[in-house]
Amino acid sequence: MSRASLEKRPEEVQAMFDDVAPRYDVVNDILSVGQTRRWRKIVVDAVDAEPGQRVLDLAAGTGTSSEPYADAGIQVVACDFSLGMLQVGKRRRPDIDFVAGDATNLPFEDNSFDATTISFGLRNVTDPQKALAEMLRVTKPGGKLVVAEFSHPTFAPWRTVYTEYLMRALPAIATKVASNPTAYVYLAESIRAWPNQDGLAAWIDAAGWEQCRYRNLSGGIVAVHRALKPLGGAPGGGAETDAAPEHAAQASAYLRHHASRRVL
Ligand SMILES: C[S@@+](CC[C@H](N)C(=O)[O-])C[C@H]1O[C@@H](n2cnc3c(N)ncnc32)[C@H](O)[C@@H]1O
């Protein structure tokens, strides 16, 4: 299996995750020097779900990002399109509801979740803007979106060090610990190609979410974006990405007037 190209053909991304599934969690912990646990706790706190609520954890992979909700008695649906990842997850946590589904065409009814979250998955989706619109469609009015994704370090010297670490060290380390090191070359490249914090916030606005705010973790290596679905439902029909340019113009105007959206 070769690495998924940055054009992100869905079948390549799917096959790549099927391939890395058995060692996915171990390699993640090693490569992020244990930081993932702290990041995950911050995501769960941002979702802030209560027992009785229904949470969609999209691109859930092996369900590591879904477990804290299940442990807290919250009904969580772990959805992913890699059967390999889902199988590893189901073996480990048979109590969690694992559902096969594509983020750009979700197999769920409109307005069916109190909160929708996606951790380290949106970057891999072929059409992330469409996925944001789909997440809006399946979330209840007033419901929450929480996106955790690798981002851009804010301190310029640190950004340089980080970029060097990513582009040079990560593939070399991955060669020693991962079964498919080329997947981690893709990881490094896809992080570099991903929009920065304000860029992702503009996409979230453009999809029809409101009050988007983000928090930088580990100096911006990761950003957690949070937004709400308008109480009146989705502007422009929610799943209609055709409305995006109009929303994008509004989002840019918003950004021009709000120098920093970081409030978490
Ligand atoms: C890096 S893993 C993250 C897994 C989990 N959320 C976590 O935090 O450990 C990214 C996941 O995104 C999934 N993915 C990528 N594109 C997808 C799509 N279009 N629909 C559903 N899942 C997708 C992959 O199969 C993979 O399991």
Overview features:
single chain, 264 residues, Rossmann fold, 7-stranded mixed sheet, 10 helices, globular
Secondary-structure map with pairings?
Layout: H1 10-20, H2 24-31, H3 35-47, E1 54-58, H4 67-71, E2 75-80, H5 83-92, E3 97-100, E4 113-119, H6 128-138, E5 139-150, H7 156-177, H8 181-193, H9 197-206, E6 210-217, E7 222-228, H10 244-257
Helix pairs in contact: 7-8, 9-10
Bound molecules: S-adenosylmethionine.
Order of helices and strands: HHHEHEHEEHEHHHEEH
Reported by name, the CATH topology is Rossmann fold
Largest sheet: 7 strands, mixed
Count the strands? 7
The number of domains is: 1
Q: What is the distance, rounded to the nearest whole angstrom, between the alpha carbons of the first and last residues?
A: 40 Å
Proportion of beta-strand residues: 15-25%
Tell me which CATH architecture applies here.
Answer: 3-Layer(aba) Sandwich
Mind telling me the CATH class?
Alpha Beta
Bound heterogens, unique: S-adenosylmethionine
Our count of helices gives: 10
Unreliable residue stretches: 236-248, 250-259
